[in-house]
Specification:
By secondary structure, the chain is α/β, with parallel strands linked by helices. It has 13 helices and 19 strands. It has helices spanning about 15-30, 55-70, 80-85, 90-95, 110-115, 160-165, 175-185, 210-215, 235-245, 260-265, 275-285, 305-320, 345-370; strands at about 5-10, 35, 45-50, 75-80, 100, 120-125, 145-150, 150, 170, 190-195, 225-230, 250-255, 290-300, 325-330, 375-385, 390-395, 400, 410-420, 425-430. Helix 5 (about 110-115) links the parallel strand 5 and strand 6 (about 120-125). Helix 8 packs parallel to helix 9 (about 235-245) and helix 12 packs parallel to helix 13. Bound molecules: S-adenosyl-L-homocysteine (SAH), iron/sulfur cluster and FE3-S4 cluster. FE3-S4 cluster binds near residues 13, 16, 17, 50 and 80. FE3-S4 cluster (F3S) binds near residues 13 and 162. It is found in: Cytoplasm.
Length: about 425
């Protein structure tokens, strides 16, 4: 195989997977590879995969097949959670050149170089010393950037592969995070979203995520802070207080609940109840009354009865989420739930998902409608579809379209004049005469 010179990274998973994709690209660039805008043109394509549901995993194999047909000479590296879960099996089944797990990707450039001159290479180690120390510094980023502060999960929900693909819960050191935040701001970020599989479990032994957010609030040039994904049991009072006290912490909380039925939550090993979840939300709303709430839901967990599903509907009716993600349960190899009795038929899952999404969509539209007439600051992230149109994000994470908007990276005040199911329309606010 000729020595590869160009690369392209394609990310398929969650926000942390996207963050990993950026850092792999930076590692490849630092090693002298040039970035190709299009996957077809690249000598090496890095597929940064997701294992969370069956569909995501199967997509990897169909993608590899398609790529091999199109350009048999192209080098393929499989990274991400499927790489961790399936390891050498991917090399056997799909004849790829490199397999690299989420904790080993600082070695990607070397693995690519070795595979170019020899046999396929694999690294799915979860080393004691974290990859972060071995990665190059951040370069250019957009106005809204991700920063991983915590990785891995010790919760072992019975349906979930993440504890296996990402390993144990590890918090990055306070100073390393603040340093990376400053580098991101220097590289163009105005907003940082702190990432972790259980981001609110972040701790350095003394301080919690609330303290970290307070420290980041003091970073010059950082206008907005967000964090995701949180676990209901790790919402410390310090973090809840931060929502009341830290101006740059945006009024948005993604707090997955999965089900409204205590029996199902127990079978999922969620270790919170319907009631304890609702009580956490009450405290958060007391601290920040205008907070937008988001959640994740799974329908059709093994054994879920119609009445238990209706408990989820009634919880949703009680909370009125601003945004939500809902999924049909997908049995994952190696997880306890995959072997549980009472697997639910596909038609039942389809029906429940539709009913749930109908309510969630209605709630999202109602939340969007309720912002009409409000004045708020938006961060411009990219150009819109039509000439002159720009797209920004509201404090509540809604997409806001402005005609003739200012350039990417601007923070501007707008009046929200209209709302659609998935976006708002804003008009630059005219300053009131004093
Ligand atoms: N750490 C986060 C996110 C985990 S993955 C958390 O605890 O909430 C993101 C979402 O995918 C989960 O919240 C869950 O709703 C969904 N999910 C995870 N495993 C799944 C499975 N086997 N089938 C269907 N959805 C799943
Ligand atoms: Fe998966 Fe549960 Fe951990 Fe979230 S808390 S990553 S759903 S095991
Ligand atoms: Fe997918 Fe791994 Fe994220 S399984 S959701 S890419 S942690």
């Amino acid at each position: 195989m000729p020595t590869p010179k160009t690369f392209h990274v394609k990310s398929f998973g969650c926000q942390m997977n996207v963050y990993d994709g950026e850092r792999m690209a930076e590692a490849m660039a630092a090693a002298g590879y040039a970035s190709a805008a299009d996957a077809t043109d690249a000598d090496v394509v890095v597929l940064n995969t997701c294992h969370i549901r069956e569909k995501a995993t199967e997509k990897v194999y169909s993608d590899i097949g398609r790529m091999k047909k199109r350009r048999p000479d192209q080098m393929i590296a499989v990274a991400g959670c499927v790489a961790q879960a399936e390891g050498a099996e991917i090399i056997r089944r799909a004849k790829v050149d490199v397999v690299v797990g989420p904790q080993a990707y600082h070695n990607l450039p070397q693995l690519v170089a070795d595979a170019a001159t020899g046999a396929p290479t694999l690294d799915t180690d979860m080393p004691l010393l974290s990859k972060f120390g071995a990665l190059p510094a951040r370069r250019r980023v957009g106005p809204s950037a991700f920063l991983t502060v915590q990785e891995g999960c010790d919760k072992f929900c019975t349906y979930c592969v993440v504890p296996y693909t990402r390993g144990a819960e590890v918090s990055r050191p306070f100073d390393a995070i603040v340093e990376e935040a400053k580098a991101l701001v220097d590289a163009g970020a105005k907003e940082i979203t702190l990432l972790g599989q259980n981001v609110n479990a972040w701790s350095d032994g003394k301080q919690d995520l609330g303290s970290l957010i307070r420290a980041l609030d003091r970073v010059d040039g950082l206008a907005r802070i967000r964090y995701t994904t949180s676990h209901p049991n790790d919402m410390t009072q310090g973090l809840i207080d931060a929502h009341a006290e830290v101006p740059s912490l945006m009024p948005f909380l993604h707090l997955p609940v999965q089900s409204g039925s205590d029996r199902v939550l127990k079978a999922m090993n969620r270790s919170h109840s319907r009631d304890s979840y609702l009580r956490v939300l009450e405290r958060v709303r007391a601290a920040r009354p205008d907070i937008a709430l988001s959640g994740d839901f799974i329908v059709g967990f093994p054994g879920e009865t119609e009445a238990e599903f209706e408990d989820t509907l009634s919880l949703v009716a009680e909370v009125r989420h601003a945004m939500a993600f809902s999924f049909k349960y997908s049995p994952r190899p190696g997880t306890p739930a995959a072997d549980m009795a009472g697997q639910i038929a596909a038609e039942v899952m389809d029906d429940r998902l539709q009913r749930l999404q109908a309510v969630l969509n209605r709630d999202q539209e109602a939340f969007n409608q309720a912002t009409v007439g409000k004045r708020c600051t938006i961060l411009i992230e990219r150009a819109g579809k039509k000439p002159g149109q720009m797209l920004g994000k509201s404090p509540w994470l809604q997409s806001v379209i402005v005609e003739d908007g200012p350039p990417v990276g601007s923070l501007i005040e707008v009046d929200i004049v209209a709302a659609w199911p998935n976006s708002l329309v804003g008009v630059a606010a005219v300053a009131q005469a004093a």
